[in-house]
Design goal:
With about 110 residues, the chain is mainly beta. Helix content is about 0%, strand content about 45%. The chain is built from no helices and 11 strands. A hairpin with a 5-residue loop joins strand 4 and strand 5. The model has no long low-confidence stretch (mean pLDDT about 95).
Length: about 110
């Protein structure tokens, strides 16, 4: 069974930072582009960012560009999302996704509140 496991979520005050991680041991991580997707309360899934297999090409949704950074460590089979200057609008369940979406993690909750 394919498996992606996210961690690093939690509650943070506005203006704070968090770093999310996503790891797997069930497939050849370095062979796939990866992405982060989030779902806020009462909203549908929203693409956040993606990264190519080598980590050299990244892309971001406009609302997070300049504040979030996606990266990966293929030696550790791990995907990261560094999130800075967080605001309440970033409250969501953040999931990592393989490739075009054939495998999703269960997500890690991020709550931004004072």
């Amino acid at each position: 069974e394919l498996q992606l496991v996210e961690s690093g979520g939690g509650m943070v005050q506005p203006g704070g930072s968090l770093r999310l991680s996503c790891t797997t041991s069930r497939f050849t991580f370095s062979s796939y582009g990866m992405a982060w997707v989030r779902q806020g309360p009462g909203k549908g899934p929203e693409w956040v960012s993606n990264i190519d297999t080598g980590g050299g090409t990244t892309d971001y949704a406009d609302p997070v560009a300049g504040r979030f950074t996606i990266s990966r460590d293929n030696t550790r089979n791990t995907l990261y999302l560094q999130m800075n200057s967080l605001g309440p609008e970033n409250t969501a369940l953040y999931s990592c996704v393989r490739g075009e979406g054939d495998c999703w993690g269960r997500g890690t909750q991020v709550t931004v509140s004072s």
